[in-house]
Amino acid sequence: MTKRRTRLVTTLGALASTVLLAGPSAMTPTAAEDSGPGATTTPIQHVVVIVQENVSFDHYFGTYPVAVNPPGEPAFVAEAGTPTVNGLTSALLTANPNSSNPQRLDRSQLLVCDQNHDYGAEQRAFDRGVMDLFVETLGAGGTQNDGTLPCNPQQVMDYYDGNTVTALWNYAQRFAMSDNFYGTGFGPSTPGALNLASGNTFGVICGNAGAFGPPEANPPPPPCPPDLSATPGTSQPQGTSTILGDSQPLFDMCSSRDKVAMGGRNVGDLLNDQGVTWGWFEGGFRDCTQAHRATGVPSTVAAKPDYVPHHEPFQYYASTANPNHLPPSSTAAIGHTDQANHQYDLTDFWAAVDAGNLPAISFLKAPAYQDGHAGYSTPLDEQNFLVATLNRLQKLDSWRNTAVIITYDDSDGWYDHQMSPILFQSQTGFDALTAPYLCGANPARVPSGQQTRCGYGPRLPLLVLSPFARHNFVDHSLLDQSSILRFIEDNWNLGRIGQGSADAFAANLTTLFDFNHRSPARLLLDASTGDQQR
After folding, report:
1. Which of 15, 96, 224, 531 is most buried (CB neighbours < 10 A)?
2. Short-list 161, 160, 155, 126, CA closest to 141
3. Dist CA 418 CA 276 (whole Å)
4. Which residues partner with 475 through β-bridges?
5. What is the average per-residue pLDDT within 482-503?
């Protein structure tokens, strides 16, 4: 097949958004808090960010809202008037520019291979915007899971629909989603997690060779010491290199390889400055030897530890780390600064909820087997976590002023047809988007001179669930991971992180809300099927 090559479009205007009301039976909201610590600029007084793993937009929502509905699988039929998304059109499904067409994965294909999702490889797959080298560049071959899981590179093109990721499609029906939300940069989980915490992957103060940008971009940092050398709670000056790979945090007793520390500030520092309660809550944090197997993983394969150190971004910063995984000094202290330093086990979140002590901002990370990561988790294990969490949150009195944001740290390399706008350029040996060694050729588009931050990266799912979320709404505004930071910063008047953070450029998430109407409706789902509870 002849491939028609196109020039890379380096900037995209935000698409017009359709404005819909929050749904039937809307009611007037209470006013935003306007005084004292924790005052908000909107009626939202609690934000819960659920950070899942390694999914592109097309991998979960490419054919939304149309599902195949084969016998024996939960059926999905969209509401009348459901908006379409920028997804996999018939041409992309039958005459794709890649060497393989996307194929539907069903509920018998839950455990799939982890794809290549390195910083440079993802750029090469984009092929100057043609988006046609995913199979050759990112598709996994060979076997995984100790040889029990055969990998076909063509699988990188494939997708699930509403018969498998049923709960997510139903949440999109009731609440709001974006089809124009991107990773702030290219690359795997560590850069994605750091962008969710600080809007920046630049600032490494120590690390191992290969974990950061090349010497021609920035001076390499010194090796990290073998011990936890910095005092938690103490801010460190920003370093001079950019992290690219999945090195683990220095300030974490559970890290076992390639340790890295970050300097500079993150959103936790801003929240602490203003006395706003917050926390990162991750499965397995209390005991990093705890492990589970996902559905379909044979018993011959070792169970995956629930806690994954490089999924915990605040452990990279001395100011917000809890190196020894100390528990909170009391349930009442959760969300406040004490020996836990805002880093907790997932069980601490529910202890705080049960005590009526829900922090203003909570980041939730599922145990690994439920985080949706290909190779060791499945969409149904992920669905169990999401539904159990959201059913419980919606039953709280605080739900009336809560917003839940569901998103992902990176794409795992899964095919997505939409070229991202390039707001941040880079010209190093790791870059390959517009040409070898180039992600754009204009040094003026390198923020603060911080190389190896080519972005935006691949398109990711984003859903907002709230009584104030627009009903059955697809937002087309240009958003990225740091837009979540921007929403938190603006809602609590925190200011900006600075030091090159993408929050300075990001759009807010407010286009997914209608703050003039609060819907009393809740959506409680069945964790097994993803259907509405009867």
Report:
1. 224
2. 155
3. 37
4. 178
5. 97
Report how far residue 312's alpha carbon sits from residue 250's, in angstroms, rounded to the nearest whole number: 11
Residue 8 has pLDDT above 60, yes or no: no
Question: Which pLDDT band holds residue 467 (cuts at 50, 70, 90)?
Answer: very high
> Is the model's pLDDT at 145 over the cut of 60?
yes
Q: What is the CA radius of gyration of the chain?
A: 22
pLDDT at 223 over 90: no
| Helix, strand, coil share of the chain (percent; to 5) | 25, 15, 60
Cα end-to-end span (Å), the chain? 50
How far is Cα 289 from Cα 305, in angstroms, rounded to an integer? 6
Axis crossing angle, helix 166-174 with helix 379-394, rounded to the nearest 10: 40
Angle ∠(457,168,350) on CA atoms, nearest 5: 95
Look at the alpha carbons of 414, 416, 419, 424 in this order and tell me if their dihedral is positive or negative.
negative
Residues 103, 160: Cα–Cα separation, whole Å: 9
Strand 176-178 versus strand 462-465 pairing type: antiparallel
3-state secondary structure of 311: helix
Of the listed ranges 114-118, 192-196, 223-227, 421-425, the one predicted with least confidence: 223-227
Distance in angstroms (rounded) separating the CA atoms of residues 52 and 198: 17
Q: Look up residue 514 and give its two tokens.
A: 């209608």
DSSP 293: P
Structure tokens given for 487: 């929403």
CA distances (Å), origin 426, targets 70, 117, 186? 46, 18, 11
Nearest-angstrom CA–CA distance, 316 and 204: 9
pLDDT, residue 379, reads: 97
What is the model's pLDDT at position 209? 54
Distance of alpha carbon 264 from alpha carbon 200, whole angstroms: 10
pLDDT tens, position by position, 311-345: 999 999 999 999 999 999 999 999 999 999 999 99
pLDDT in tens, 109-143: 999 999 999 999 999 999 999 999 999 999 999 99
DSSP 8-state symbol, 534: -
Residue 21 pLDDT > 80: no
Cβ-defined contacts of 217-224 (< 8 Å, 24+): 217/241, 217/242, 217/426, 217/428, 217/429, 217/430, 217/451, 217/452, 218/242, 218/450, 218/451, 218/452, 224/250, 224/259, 224/260, 224/261
**Phi, psi at 171, each rounded to 5°:** -65, -40
- Tell me the two tokens of residue 10: 């380096």
Domains and CATH numbers, the chain: 46-185+267-512 (3.40.720.10)
- For residues 464 and 157, is the Cβ–Cβ distance under 8 A? no
The label of the residue with tokens 């059913």 reads 391
Q: Are 502 and 200 in contact (CB under 8 A)?
A: yes
